[in-house]
Design a protein that fits this description.
The complex is a heterotrimer. Chain B is globular and about 50 Å long. By secondary structure, chain B is α/β, with parallel strands linked by helices. Chain B has a four-stranded parallel β-sheet. A four-stranded parallel β-sheet of chain B has the order 6-5-7-8, sandwiched between helices. Chain B contains 13 helices and eight strands. The chains are: A alpha/beta, B alpha/beta, C alpha/beta. Chain A: Residues 41-215 form the LUD domain.
């Protein structure tokens, strides 16, 4: 404990005396004033610019779009939760599909090798997203653990269009993050990437090679903007 | 970055601080600056006891010496006239660093007063004199090298090019990496000669590659550095202080 | 490629070698040009000055409350189940980390990018204890394979080009020689995935530690940081004590500044916020999370109002990307963990001025670093401050103060002072220099190794102004023409 006390004491008995703390004005990171359409367009443009694929679907028929993505990408084993409505609906819709559904409500120690080597894709819900940066907001849960969005080569994230916020600051403030943080909170903006070899972009260096965002639109009239 | 400055109306008189490099190596640049100001109807006061702003000692860490030299300049500008300096580097020293150097000393108020009146030459010509130029020179391709002190310490990236832009016969060519340092840096060029040499080599090549017959600068340190490089390499590109260039083409 | 070691004591020799190495020159120039362009483009639609002001302000507020925030961070982390350790210096931090490893019988450590772990030579320390420490960030991995140290704080392998990297991977891991970046990346992915699964402990750095919630924030693109902090059963995060911020809402502006300043990205792929170890009922993540807070000279920097600004740094690397000196000599030349301008104002505090005496002078004070710094650290002023300390005219509170003071140089500056404070002597001197112009040596090395020597004018400005006034009086005209 002596290091702790020594350090704190040195900081408290500062040679040049106590410092005064300035107030902060956060206006520059909030109040974007974007409407829902602009928000969505920005989100799509930004996440697209970092290799994220966006697929639009209605709230009713999104699992059809999911099945198409899975077929498109040649997914044979899909890891997903059970309880979250996204996982539950997907399970119902895919019950008769060729895709094998992999349970994730298991201690990782019992299936780590399996997860790393035999799972083609992970499906997760999201709590929202950020238009300004094209970022998904995930708080992993026992139902949808942390590694599902990281280990498989394909991450499919389901996002409800109306949960988009303008900025990261808006997400933190409006959703009261400071009141209680989960074990792990994540922003995800595209698939894993690196530019460590002569600034040449390469995807999938450690995590997913591909990220597909399935954007669900409420109401039946909402057709996919670019379908 | 210097905060936005409110410029005074054109005064009857100004003080002129010539800088030691101009005094010793490029006095004609100083004279041409004085001529430009006088042509605008401004009386130029040249305090005879001026020597050096103290910057060489300051940037070398010898602040006691720098303070003594600076203190010897502070008393040379007793009337409230603006002080015009034909160098971003010395101007930056006097405007930005004099207040730091004299903070907490008896001369603090005087240093702040002097600092508040410092104008770099091109800044003064553009923002205070609203100088209008009529070009009488031959057509020519010219590159502008704005010194790092003028650009960053004094926030004057635009004033030099704005003046050259008024010269009808001058084509201002854009060099690659125009904002990059030429490698002078005062004692840096002596303490780290190889790095400084690599920097000035790149700068000279960029100016030449832009197709300029001449480069114009508002700082004699950069001119001595880049011009000396061209001369050593036996290149035809010539350097000139902006005051001389403006005077020569418009008189 | 031969293994080279670099030390700040040999800055001049190392700079000479780098300047003579066309590969190094080309690799850095290309990389820095690209990074500068990307940064400029990504900030083009922002009110950058207001954002930088906010960034500076958040960091200043955190520093103003530093001891309280560290205690709050500790309390909240502990309440969340994260164990907090304090280390006076790098050695103590290494011992703490080794102790945690030993308590788990760990033989294999996988590392996410952490500059503070480089600073304290953690890998060497662990290896001495028989614990293998493997870097997992691709750039760090390549540099480690090549038995080098990072040459940039964000892009560790920036000194290497594709061919060199292909050769390293071929030599050390047996991959095919290839210029295909996707192939090389996939090979490294496969190699490192095995190691993630096998690792006993993951060690990471921290970008921001949030006092309010006891949250550790990690910024990355690759996913190796998430792997490091999620796959092994134990996660040890190590950070300098200055990385704490007060509130969670302080994080978004700093993150926005960090990614844009560092690599010109709107955002990184991952922003990973860790607030606790695996909880009851959760299925993955480490069962133990430790936070090691390292002082290592930082509390000493903290004492001084001017030097304090050094601690605002959020380690984006923009200062080196924009530094004309760094661009030419590369990162290794500095011989320090942190190269470039931030390194030149930080390393003297970590290593003392005896070791680092050439770093504060290795700048033309062009100001590019200060101009781009996202938290507005006045880097040029701090370089000048350290020059003062080096020559013994500062406050004497930096280790090794006065090391550069020589009687000869001090006398020369005293001589300058005397001349410049005696205007009559000055005027005679400049006049004399003009008269003796012909006697000026044509060679004044090292200046004339690269340029011709300037010649004192025949008449000084003082003399010309006098003539000018006399002529004005006799003509009574003001607008006289020289020609």
């Amino acid at each position: 404990m002596s290091a702790r006390n020594n350090i704190l004491q040195r900081l408290r008995e500062r040679l040049d005396g106590p410092l005064s703390a300035p107030e902060s004005d956060f206006a520059v990171v909030t109040n974007r004033g974007w409407g829902p359409e602009e928000r969505l367009a920005r989100f799509e443009r930004l996440i697209g610019s970092v290799h994220g694929e966006v697929v639009h679907a209605s709230r009713e028929s999104w699992t059809t779009a999911l099945a198409e993505v899975l077929a498109d990408k040649g997914v044979r084993r899909l890891a997903l939760g059970k309880e979250h409505p996204v996982a539950a609906e997907a399970r119902r819709a895919l019950a008769d599909a060729e895709v094998e559904l992999v349970d994730v409500d298991r201690e990782i120690e019992t299936w780590q090798q399996e997860q790393f080597e035999t799972v083609d894709a992970g499906l997760t819900s999201t709590l929202g997203a950020i238009a300004e940066t094209g970022s998904l907001w995930l708080w992993p849960t026992p139902d949808e653990p942390r590694l599902i969005s990281l280990v498989p080569s394909l991450h499919i994230a389901v996002l409800d269009a109306e949960t988009l916020e303008d900025t990261f600051f808006d997400v933190v403030e409006k959703h009261g993050w400071a009141k209680g943080m989960p074990t792990n909170a994540l922003l995800i903006s595209g698939p894993s990437k690196t530019a460590d070899i002569e600034q040449t972009l390469a995807y999938g260096v450690h995590g997913p090679r591909e990220l597909v965002v399935l954007v669900r639109h409420a109401g039946t009239t909402q057709e996919s903007p670019d379908a | 970055m210097t905060p936005v400055k409110c410029y005074p109306p054109k005064p009857e008189k100004v003080y002129f601080f010539g800088t030691c490099l101009i005094d010793l190596f490029y006095p004609e640049a100083g004279m041409d600056a004085i001529r430009l100001l006088e042509r605008e109807g401004v009386e130029v006061l040249f305090p005879e006891d001026q020597t050096c702003c103290g910057q060489p000692a300051y940037t070398s860490g010898y602040h006691d010496e720098a303070r003594a030299v600076a203190a010897a300049q502070l008393g040379l500008f007793p009337e409230p006239w603006p002080i015009v300096v034909p160098s971003g580097s010395c101007g930056g020293m006097m405007r930005k660093h004099y207040p730091q150097l004299f903070a907490g000393t008896d001369l603090e108020a005087q240093a702040n007063d002097v600092a508040g009146r410092i104008h770099e030459l091109t800044e003064f010509l553009v923002h205070v004199c609203h100088l209008q130029l009529e070009d009488r020179g031959e057509p020519e391709k010219v590159a502008m090298h704005t010194s790092c002190s003028a650009r960053r310490e004094m926030g004057l990236a635009e004033t030099g090019p704005a003046l050259l832009g008024q010269l009808g016969g001058v084509e201002l060519v854009e060099q690659e990496r125009a904002a990059e340092c030429c490698g002078f840096g005062g004692t840096f060029s002596v303490r780290h000669p190889e790095i400084s040499g690599a920097m000035v080599d790149d700068k000279a090549k960029a100016i030449e590659a832009a197709g300029a017959a001449r480069f114009v600068t508002s700082d004699c340190g950069c001119m001595m550095n880049i011009g000396g490089r061209f001369e050593q390499q036996k290149k035809a590109v010539k350097g000139e202080h902006i005051a001389s260039y403006l005077w020569r083409r418009t008189s | 490629m031969s293994v080279q070691t670099f030390t700040p004591r040999e800055f001049h020799r190392q700079a000479h070698d780098a300047l003579g190495n066309p590969q190094i020159r080309a690799n850095f120039r290309k990389a820095m040009d690209g990074l500068m362009t990307k940064r400029r483009d990504v900030f083009s639609d922002w009110d950058l000055e207001t954002l930088r002001e906010l960034g500076a302000n958040i960091r200043l507020r955190a520093l103003a409350k530093l001891p309280d925030l560290l205690e709050q961070l500790e309390a909240n982390c502990e309440a969340n189940g994260i164990r907090v350790h304090w280390a006076e210096d790098g050695d103590e931090a290494c011992r703490i980390i080794r102790g945690i490893c030993d308590s788990h019988g760990a033989r294999s450590v996988i590392k996410g990018k952490s500059m503070v772990s480089e600073e304290m030579h953690l890998n060497a320390h662990l290896e001495e204890a028989g614990i293998e420490a493997l870097e997992s960030d691709l750039g760090e991995y390549l540099v480690q394979l090549n038995e080098q140290t990072p040459s940039h704080i964000i892009m560790p392998a920036i000194h290497l080009n594709t061919d060199e990297i292909s050769e390293i991977l071929h030599d050390k891991t047996g991959t095919e020689r290839s210029r295909d970046v996707d192939y090389m990346t996939a090979a490294a992915r496969a190699q490192l995935r095995e190691r993630f699964m096998a690792a006993d402990v993951g060690v990471s750095g921290v970008n921001f530690a949030v006092a309010e919630t006891g949250t550790l924030c990690l910024v990355e693109n690759e996913g190796n940081g998430r792997m490091t902090t999620t796959v092994p059963p134990v996660h040890i995060a190590v950070t300098g004590i200055e990385k704490v911020v007060e509130h969670l809402r302080d994080v978004p502006p700093l993150y926005a500044l960090l990614t844009r300043s560092a690599t010109g990205q709107h955002v990184t792929t991952y922003f990973n916020m860790i607030s606790s170890p695996r909880k009851e009922g959760e299925h993955d993540g480490p069962k133990e999370v430790h936070l090691v807070l390292v002082d290592s000279g930082r509390s000493r920097i903290y004492q001084d109002d001017e030097l304090l600004d050094t601690l605002r740094c959020i380690r984006c690397g923009a200062c080196m990307n924009h530094c004309p000196v760094y661009t030419r000599v590369g990162g290794h030349t500095y011989g320090t963990t942190y190269p470039g301008p931030i390194g030149s104002i930080l390393s003297p505090h970590l290593m003392g001025l005896e070791e680092t005496k050439d770093l504060p002078t290795a700048s033309s004070l062009c100001g590019a670093c200060g101009e781009v710094c996202p938290v507005k650290i006045p880097i040029p002023d701090l370089l000048v401050r350290l020059r003062r300390e080096s020559v013994g005219e500062g406050r004497g509170n930096v280790a090794g103060a006065g090391v550069k003071r020589t009687r000869k140089e001090a006398a020369a500056w005293k001589g300058f002072e005397w001349m410049a404070t005696h205007p009559g002597v000055w005027r005679s001197g400049t006049a004399l220099a003009g008269k003796l112009q012909a006697l000026m040596p044509a060679k004044l090395a090292p200046w004339t190794d690269y340029r011709t020597a300037p010649k004192p004018a025949r008449a000084s400005l003082h003399a010309l102004v006098k003539q000018h006034r006399r002529r004005q009086q006799t003509d009574g005209s003001e607008g006289e023409n020289r020609s």
